[in-house]
Amino acid sequence: MNAIRVRGLTKAYKGHRAVAGVDLDVARGEVFAVLGPNGAGKTTSVEILEGHRDRDGGEVSVLGVDPAEGGREWRSKLGIVLQSATDAATLTVREAVRHYAGYYADPRDPEEVIDLVGLTEKAKARVGTLSGGQRRRLDVALGIIGRPELVFLDEPTTGFDPEARRQFWGLVKRLAAEGTTILLTTHYLDEAEALADRVAVLAGGRIVAEGTPRTLGGRANADATVRYLAAGGYTEIRTSEPAKTIAELARHGEPAELTVTRPSLEDVYLELIK
Amino acid sequence: MTTATTTRPALPSPLRLGLARGGSELREFFRQKENLIFTVSLPAVLMLLLGTVYVKEAAAAQMFAASMIGAGIISTSFVGLGMSVVGDREDGTLKRLRGTPMPFTSYFIGKIVLVFVSSLVEAALLAVVGIVRFDLQLPTSLDKWLTFAWVFSLGVIACSLIGVALSALAKSTKTAAGVFNLPYVVLQFLSGVFIMQSALPESLRTVGSFFPLKWVCQGFRSVFALDDGYAVMEAAGSWELGRTALVLGAWTVIGLVLVARTFRWSNTSR
């Protein structure tokens, strides 16, 4: 059974169709990224899956349960990582993690989780004094304290500096290695490429492409561009057989500044959301 | 139940979670300076200032302190709890809690613990100010303390529920200050806290009589009166304890209905 199964999901706000028929399958143990511009319907979709929002239509099953009817047992198997919470400001990190551990039947060890998210040195600090990146790592700690089978990460690294993002990625990879299913939304393509087994692009409330980061939007089969410097200018050749092109070029001597590129995930993505 | 569910360890009971929430709520409440300054200390400061003007004799000290204690517990229950729910919605607490296996009942139990403890602290603080500054005498009979206990409990519960219901009107803690403080200050005028109710025009007195604050204060005045002859100073000329129970009970029911109908987990849900 898949961790998430969605068919024909729709949701409108005041006549505006925020989600216009989304189908989605996420297997157990998979890291699945949903990419899309602001307003594409990412957060709405995820909040419906989390049971935070009602849907207008479609079938949704998360860990075998319809989120609209999920009870305590179901919620105890989910880990929801918030993206902009500023709660628990006057508690210490340790107090907050311990408190939330008490909600679950079989939580992880709070000290272990604090260590896992790299906040051991901040365990006695008040939550309100943490930096943005530390605060988000606490959110992850609170999201995974209950040993969830499925973790939702909604734009988890927005506002992170590059180092904090790399650390965060390491954390997500560790969770994935433990077999946790992860649904990630992001607008950072490098993030999806680094973390996700599969990617879907959401635009205008619909999924416009789906695949592995390598093959998304026909990227693997797309024409390559061979580029080199000749007679004072760059020449670009688009070809499906770059090796052959280069072999022909090489017969006239070594081409200067030779590069072969395929469309990056970003190129494909920008094309898809047009 | 199937064997699959019985092999999983059971989730903690709602009551246990509620008490754990209460502990955490109290910890957060007393660590927040705004709470200590506005919700807890303000009534004590007002009591000191107004008392210096009003209190010229023992009887006035008793009646004034009783009214201020009434106003104080409305500050911690109605204003304090209302603001804390708005804050929970604004800072993501409610959204986070909704994503955990903690039931709504436990959240509410936590708030009840918070309100009872903070209101008791408030009442004790005001009593100490009264004793030190105005020679307030505490009641000595068990009877009076029992009256205090039920007026306190019913008043705190009714005002907490109204506070939570009104929290649906405030989108942020900034607007919440107006939503809660305006009615609170106006009602203090209408309920005999700042001015004796018998000194108010009939129309204003009637308006005040619809709301819980008047009845909580009147109930406390009956508790702190040195003798029951003081009751002649009330608008009705008696303590009206039966009516107090009735009005506070009615507000509790109204509050429960409003909370059940208006409570929102977030500002954007649905």
From TrEMBL, chain A:
Keyword Repeat: no
GO CC terms: plasma membrane
All residue ranges annotated as the ABC transporter domain in the record: 4-229
Keywords, in A-Z order: Antibiotic resistance, ATP-binding, Cell membrane, Membrane, Nucleotide-binding, Translocase, Transport
Entries under Gene3D superfamilies matching the protein: P-loop containing nucleotide triphosphate hydrolases
Pfam name, any one: ABC_tran
Subcellular location: Cell membrane
Principal localisation: membrane
MF terms in GO: ATP binding; ATP hydrolysis activity
Biological process per Gene Ontology, one example term: response to antibiotic
Membrane topology: Peripheral membrane protein
Entry-linked InterPro entries: AAA+_ATPase (IPR003593), ABC_transporter-like_ATP-bd (IPR003439), ABC_transporter-like_CS (IPR017871), ABC_transporter_ATP-binding (IPR050763), P-loop_NTPase (IPR027417)
PANTHER family per the UniProt record, alphabetical: ABC TRANSPORTER ATP-BINDING PROTEIN
Name of the molecule in the record: ABC-2 type transport system ATP-binding protein
Organism name: Lentzea fradiae
Automatic annotation (TrEMBL), chain B:
Keyword Magnesium: no
Keyword Lyase in annotation: no
Pfam families, per database record: ABC2_membrane (PF01061)
GO BP: response to antibiotic
Location(s) in or outside the cell: Cell membrane; Membrane
Lipid bilayer topology: Multi-pass membrane protein
GO molecular function, one term: ABC-type transporter activity
Residues in ABC transmembrane type-2 domain copies: 30-266
Predominant place of localization: membrane
InterPro entries tied to this protein: ABC2_TM (IPR013525), ABC2_TM_bact-type (IPR047817), ABC_2_transport (IPR000412), Nod_factor_ABC_transporter (IPR051784)
Keywords for this protein: Antibiotic resistance, Cell membrane, Membrane, Transmembrane, Transmembrane helix, Transport
Transmembrane intervals: 36-55, 61-87, 108-133, 145-170, 182-200, 241-260
GO cellular component: ATP-binding cassette (ABC) transporter complex
Family per similarity comment: Belongs to the ABC-2 integral membrane protein family.
Record protein name field: Transport permease protein
Organism field: Lentzea fradiae
